[in-house]
Sequence to fold (167 residues):
Amino acid sequence: MEAKILKLIKLIGEEVQIFETFLHYLNLQQDALVANNLEALQSVTRDQEELALRTTRVETERRALVEEICGELRRDHSDLTLSELTKLVAEPQSNQIQALQTTLLALHEQIATIKARNDFLIRKSMEYINTTIAQLGLTEQVNQTTYTADRTKAAPAAKTALVDRRA
Fold:
């Protein structure tokens, strides 16, 4: 049982490293968004995708190990949290699990904050792009009837002036 607890601690430690890396990638993503650097944004997105694959592997391992531990403890896996586990294991492992839990919670909070900020930046960029496209749509367009049959010619519609030309 102790070996499984130590392996679980190792896996949770690996998850902490993954969260720290993800937090770093989110900061890089934010910098790329602010600098409007598409290449950096694509690069960090690829890195995040690779990290997601690693996360899936570690999570699958951790879930299987938790199932084994729950079987030995005769507990339902949905009831066993890190807080509960600290009450069931010896002192050194209990302290390690508690420290990892605190670190995970802090990282989760930081990730949520930065992710919300990045989502805001992306939304604002999309609004800017949409506004620009809408403004370009109000400008005089090339006569689209140039290469169509004469029967479809119609009087050009009046365009709304977008720019105040007063000096």
User: Anything to note?
Assistant: The mean pLDDT is 84. The domain at 2-134 is CATH 1.20.58 (Methane Monooxygenase Hydroxylase; Chain G, domain 1).
